[in-house]
Amino acid sequence: MYAKFEALLKKNGVTAYEVSKKTGIRASTFYEWKAGLYTPKVDKIQKIADYFGVPLTYFYE
Question: What's the CA gap between 42 and 48, in Å, rounded?
């Protein structure tokens, strides 16, 4: 799931920090997610999906 997030970051030329600022999701959440220590809940995934303009299901395919 994080790999899809990383792909969106690269495609859109933004950093996890920038997404954090725009969505209100703590930057540490992204780093914990990348390290496999945390999996964001659906509400946070929805905020990320909305930010990038993709459906929620994009992260679950």
Answer: 10
Q: Is 46 exposed, middle or buried (0-12, 13-18, 19+ CB in 10 A)?
A: middle
Structural domain including 56 reads: 2-60
Identify which of 43, 44, 52, 41 has the alpha carbon closest to the alpha carbon of residue 18.
52
| Domains contained in the chain, number | 1
pLDDT > 90 fraction of the chain, expressed in percent and rounded: 90
Residue 33 pLDDT > 90: yes
Q: What's the CATH code of the domain at 50? A: 1.10.260.40
Residue 61: is its pLDDT beyond 90? no
